[in-house]
Amino acid sequence: MARRQEAKGWVFVGPFLAVFALTFLAPIGYAVYLSLYRDQAFFGGTVFVGLDNYAEVLRDPKFWESAGRVLVFLVVQVPVMLILALLAALAIDSARLRGASFFRIVLFLPYAVPGVVAVLMWGFLYGDTFGLAADLNDLFGTTVVQPLSGSWMLPSIANIVTWEFVGYNMLIFYSALRTVPGELYEAAAIDGAGAIRTVRAIKLPALRGAIVIATIFSIIGSFQLFNEPNILRTLAPNVITTYYTPNMYAYNLSFAGQQFNYSATVAIVMGVLTAIIAYVVQLRGSREAL
Where are the beta strands (DSSP E) in the chain? Predict the structure, then answer.
């Protein structure tokens, strides 16, 4: 009887495990396999090199430059985005905001816009020879507004990402706020707690888990930064290099440089770094929640 029930369980779980193995485990395993080899063009064929590719990545200045740029992006953009999303969720959840449903939809709409379309739209606004930036420079007779310049490129990309994902994170926070029992608000009102006190004593503690989840998702998304700089590169090829982000570096190594083995190594190293940082954030967030 127990074996029959176990067999039925495997029937239900089996399709998921098969798809999971084919779409997740198999690509990772193949990438690890590629990273252990190197194509020797002048000696013929691919040879096993062990961990030599990993040692080369750790010494690669291009890799560390791109990783450092993404880290700066993460440290600055993620807190700004999450704070804006938190403020929006608190405002929509409060009873003082009129038209809360309208603002909730408006804030979430940018997330529904395809990423490529969003970057193209902002690219037309950023262009210093056309679009809004060019019009502002012509209007004031200056060249100060240059979103695609070297010093402003990373903030410009951060603005696009923030515009895209504030609504997504707002919805995570708002959903967590809707699970707070109404009795807590009634007790706070009886105790004479004001709006600020209610937020600090009830709403923010209830949002700890959601904040941890949103932070982890944002960290992973930051290290996966690719669409925005890759599309804007056509507008500013002298500013955005082929190794502007680690994902761009791995992509161009593979499809432009035909260095599949080294590209797989870069991808694995970034995957490990992302997993470590996300795990540390999750562990710290869980401890603070306790």
Answer: 37-39, 46-48
